[in-house]
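Hi R.,

As promised on Friday, here is the backbone we talked about, encoded as structure tokens. Could you run it through your design pipeline when you get a chance and send me back a sequence?
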């Protein structure tokens, strides 16, 4: 995934970023509120050498102090320093715990030693720092004091001067009680929380994008299937309540179906299909909505069109138009009525053959020779026959039916249908020799400034608003169709 794709993924999954950012800020605020304040007292020591005032000796002493000052800093946290301090101040802690709260640093090329002590009480932190500095000075001077070389009893009574340490440590800055705690640091915690939340969100987005095998754009679908994407149907939250769109309107959905109709008409100029199956991989991809509105678009463009509801598992074409469902395709297949007896008309000049009663054996009926005869008869009457079928993967109904058609449209839902599902569906159609005319990318999220927004410059006022759909009222039932319906109910 390149940078452009990652930025697009961040824009799509902005809610994940917001949640992670809120969690990071919340964790930072919680850490700041629950952490006990810690104060830090500081003191500084200067390491000097004892000697004459001769310049050469002073330089030698300076070099000597700089060479040994790093070793002195490591002595600060030893038990020789911490044990006496704990006893002197009567601290309720162990020498080891006190050592973990002491930090000694000797800056390079200096003879200074900075000692820092952390404690929950500011005054106690200053007392501990001063006590540590005093005890540390004594320990260093004691360690640097040379031992007396004379040890025999004969010379013990002789007058010999006591050895003196060549170095001395003096306090240049005494520790005072700090006024502000060094931790927690609200600004630092907040910065860490924000950065941590953003990194967590970016990581989750990258992980989800890696594991997500669905299609986010029609271009990706076309590259994967090697099929032309004949149309991109934008997502509309009002579609479940208003499934029908009028192609003379200027909404994004109406423009999308108009474009699908045009692309379909020009995609197969040399061998235009008359019987077209509309299917999908799994339920919920919008195949019925595509079938209905594509058929309406063709009919309103002056093309003699018949819509057949061949989804005998969950038929929904009749309910979409408000038609009679009991008499229809299954009624014709079992010989109880002719096609003209159960054919229903809707506004716009579209003929609809409803599913009829739901049969116990839809797979056998749809793959039968009688079904082939029905489709041929419809093709001889209408210029285009749109067949709404069942999804390919859950049931085997469509595989047998699609082989009787002259082409198929594969509907793929944006950000929902996986690559494996699309691949399996396309392979199942290919195995039975079905010509896949192309794909339809449904429920695609298009922003206001998306690919259709540019048409607003040509004077389409209110472009993008969904107009009130045209109510498709069926014609009155004929006596023949009513009789066929009653016969089908029996």
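Update: got your reply. Pasting your designed sequence below so it's all in one thread:
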């Amino acid at each position: 995934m390149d940078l452009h794709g990652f930025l697009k993924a961040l824009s799509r999954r902005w809610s994940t970023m917001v949640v992670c950012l809120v969690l990071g800020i919340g964790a930072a605020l919680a850490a700041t509120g629950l952490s006990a304040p810690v104060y830090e007292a500081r003191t500084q020591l200067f390491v000097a050498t004892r000697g004459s005032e001769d310049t050469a000796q002073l330089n030698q002493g300076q070099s000597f102090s700089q060479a040994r000052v790093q070793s002195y800093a490591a002595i600060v946290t030893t038990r020789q320093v911490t044990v006496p301090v704990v006893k002197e101040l009567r601290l309720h802690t162990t020498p080891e715990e006190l050592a973990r709260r002491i930090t000694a640093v000797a800056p390079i090329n200096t003879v200074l030693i900075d000692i820092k002590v952390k404690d929950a009480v500011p005054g106690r932190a200053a007392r501990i720092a001063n006590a540590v500095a005093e005890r540390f000075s004594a320990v260093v001077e004691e360690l640097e004091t040379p031992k007396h070389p004379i040890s025999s009893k004969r010379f013990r009574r002789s007058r010999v001067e006591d050895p003196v340490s060549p170095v001395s440590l003096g306090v240049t800055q005494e520790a005072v009680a700090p006024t502000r705690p060094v931790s927690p640091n609200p600004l630092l915690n907040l910065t860490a929380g924000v950065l941590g939340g953003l990194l967590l969100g970016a990581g989750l987005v990258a992980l989800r994008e890696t594991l997500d095998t669905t299609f986010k754009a029609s271009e990706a679908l076309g590259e994967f299937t090697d099929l032309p994407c004949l149309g991109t149907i934008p997502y509309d939250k009002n579609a479940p309540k208003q499934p029908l769109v009028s192609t003379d309107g200027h909404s994004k959905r109406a423009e999308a179906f108009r474009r699908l109709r045009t692309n379909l008409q020009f995609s197969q100029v040399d061998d235009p299909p008359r019987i077209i199956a509309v299917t999908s991989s799994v339920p919920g991809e919008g195949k019925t909505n595509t079938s209905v509105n594509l058929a309406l678009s063709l009919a309103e463009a002056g093309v003699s069109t018949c819509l057949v509801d061949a989804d005998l598992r969950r038929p929904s074409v009749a309910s979409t138009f408000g038609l009679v469902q009991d008499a229809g395709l299954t009624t014709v297949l079992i010989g109880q009525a002719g096609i003209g007896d159960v054919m229903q008309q809707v506004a716009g000049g579209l003929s609809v053959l409803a599913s009829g009663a739901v049969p116990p054996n839809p797979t056998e009926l749809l793959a039968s020779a009688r079904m082939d005869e029905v489709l041929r008869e419809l093709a001889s009457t209408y210029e285009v026959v749109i067949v709404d079928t069942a999804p390919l993967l859950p049931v085997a109904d469509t595989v047998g039916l699609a082989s009787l058609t002259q082409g198929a449209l594969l509907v793929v839902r944006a950000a929902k249908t996986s690559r494996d599902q699309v691949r399996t569906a396309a392979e199942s159609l290919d195995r039975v020799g079905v010509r896949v005319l192309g794909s339809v990318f449904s429920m695609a999220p298009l922003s206001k400034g998306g690919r259709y927004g540019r048409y607003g410059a040509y004077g389409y006022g209110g472009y993008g608003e969904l107009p009130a759909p045209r109510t498709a009222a069926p014609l009155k039932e004929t006596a023949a169709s009513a009789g066929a319906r009653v016969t089908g109910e029996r």
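One thing I noticed while checking it: The two ends are 60 Å apart (CA to CA).

Thanks again,
M.
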